[in-house]
Design goal:
It contains three helices and no strands. It has helices at about 1-40, 45-50, 70-75. The chain is an all-alpha fold. It is about 65% helix and about 0% strand. The chain folds into two domains: about 1-35; about 50-85, no CATH class. About 0% of the residues are buried. The chain binds zinc ion. Zinc ion binds near residues 54, 57, 67 and 70.
């Protein structure tokens, strides 16, 4: 009787291990597919480009700035008109 119980326990453990392996394998395949699809979409690039472009005209500017020198000069020269952009 003890041998039959051991065989049943071993069989259940083996089945659980197979289910775990199949689940991990499918999870790996799904994660790889998600990574490939996310790499194709340039969402992060657009965000970075927006961070380094002028708010008014969209010209490329160094990091830490929101407005390019041209728009900044226009804003200084036309202080009365607050809404230039
Ligand atoms: Zn500008």
């Amino acid at each position: 009787m003890m041998e039959i119980k051991h065989v049943i326990i071993i069989a259940v453990v083996v089945i659980l291990l197979i289910i775990l392996m199949v689940g991990l394998y499918s999870a790996l395949i799904m994660s790889k597919r998600v990574d490939k699809s996310s790499n194709i979409q340039p969402n992060t690039n657009t965000v970075e480009s927006n961070a380094n472009t002028c708010v008014c005209c969209g010209e490329v500017i160094p990091e830490g700035r929101q407005v390019c020198p041209n728009c900044e000069n226009e804003a200084v020269s036309k202080k009365r008109e607050d809404k230039i952009c």
